[in-house]
Specification:
The chain folds into two domains: 5-46; 53-101, no CATH class. Helix content is 35%, strand content 20%. It contains four helices and three strands, in the order E-E-E-H-H-H-H. It is elongated, with a radius of gyration of 18 Å.
Length: 107
Amino acid sequence: MADGDVVKMKLTFWRDDKKPGDVIEVPADEVHRWKGFAEQVGEPVPSGESTTPTAAAGPLPRPADGAKVDEWRTYAVHLGMEQADADKATKTELQDYATKTTAGSKA
């Protein structure tokens, strides 16, 4: 499934104001969260919108060396690091990842 695809799912349980049997559209990268609450109906359809925040974002400036670790996490995720990996990484690891990633793009 491509980024930006949506999947139609039929609810099997009540969810907010929706009842079992109602069909909803779910971003393709969120389908795993609906397992047990809904069943996939049909094939994924392009929505025309990206569901990846970094794909829609413009260039993010590199944080200062003294910036807080949260700023470095945001920057590393913007460069392509998985959020789960960024959450576990130290500030130094995030800075090293940023340096390696941006060095490759300058070459």
